[in-house]
Write a structure and sequence with these properties.
Distance between the termini: 30 Å
Number of strands: 5
Order of helices and strands: HHEEEEEH
Helix content: 40-55%
Number of helices: 3
Number of domains: 2
Shape: rod-shaped
Radius of gyration: 25 Å
Strand order of the largest sheet: 1-2-3-5-4
Length: 139
Amino acid sequence: MPKKGWTQKALRKYILLEIPPLLLFAGFLWLLRLWTGLPLWAAGGLLVLWTIKDIILFFYTWPAYDAGTGNRYSMVHQTGLTEERLNPEGYIRIRGERWRARPGPGLARIESGQRVRVLAEEGLTLLVEPEPSASDADS
């Protein structure tokens, strides 16, 4: 299960990777100040805006900097609905996307319109099993 929230490791990695672009931008502003007479307050303000941009972007990009977040794009354990009979293969819909699927081990076929849970991925084909219905859970 992926972790929720960012970690100190991700923050440290992000900061270390953002230092070189920040220094390059500061150097560019210094040269711009020399060439065009850019006021110091304007150069400082642009540097502050650059830093604020980096802070905001961290909260959108931190999973890329944290190796422990797992594969966020995995379809395993997701649920969907069969669009046609899976005998032996067919299509299911998960989160608005159409995926090729086939019944998991020990299952012959799964009927159309049935809710399924993804067991595994084999390339771009999903192995699925029927999800127990409310009536199955009561028995």
